[in-house]
Amino acid sequence: MVNFRIFFILFLRLGTIVLQKAVKKQEKARSLFFHKLMQIISLICLIIGFVVIYYNKSIKGSTHYKTYHAKIGLIAFIVYIIQLITGLALTFFPSLLGGISKSKKYYKHHRLTGYINLSLIWLSAITSTRANWVTKHFNQHWIWTFSIGLIIIGVIGRINFNKIKICNIKCNFSSFVNFTQYIPIYSQKNQTNQTNR
């Protein structure tokens, strides 16, 4: 049960990170493929985790959606599904949005909504640590506060405001936390660049 939530967040985040550093056309194509693959895997994990938790609460006769974790998680789940449908439309059915050139105008909204939903997903994960069972067995408030701070730094640190193009901010925090070195697509590219120097 917990593993599916962890894998969901892991694959979702990997699918998001890979798009941040893509600049060249070939990189963008590979990154988009990797993004789609990670989103499909994370969707499978999300659905399995949701079904298992819902079924578990049903057989125990527990009330659904009474905690902040459950409410935020449900909102994040709905936004994720909408985000997934939008991403599919942008990628595979751009004619629904007026063609490829017009559909590209919606990328910034898809990206911004993705960042907002990523924050909701992390918030849902963090609020799960305040569940009765967790606080009964492990009641350390400093870890909860510290993890929220790290998540905020991690999410904001990866946002490339220039790609969102909604506000006119010229700073790019993407180099603050560089996780792309751990992704095979980028580690190969960086090794090639360093040997060429």
From TrEMBL:
Keyword line: Electron transport, Heme, Iron, Membrane, Metal-binding, Signal, Transmembrane, Transmembrane helix, Transport
Residues spanning the membrane: 35-55, 75-100, 112-129, 141-161
Matching PROSITE patterns: CYTOCHROME_B561
Domain called Cytochrome b561: residue spans: 1-164
UniProt GO MF annotations: metal ion binding; transmembrane monodehydroascorbate reductase activity
Cofactor(s) the protein requires to work: heme b
Name of the molecule in the record: Cytochrome b561 domain-containing protein
Native source species: Rhizophagus irregularis (strain DAOM 197198w) (Glomus intraradices)
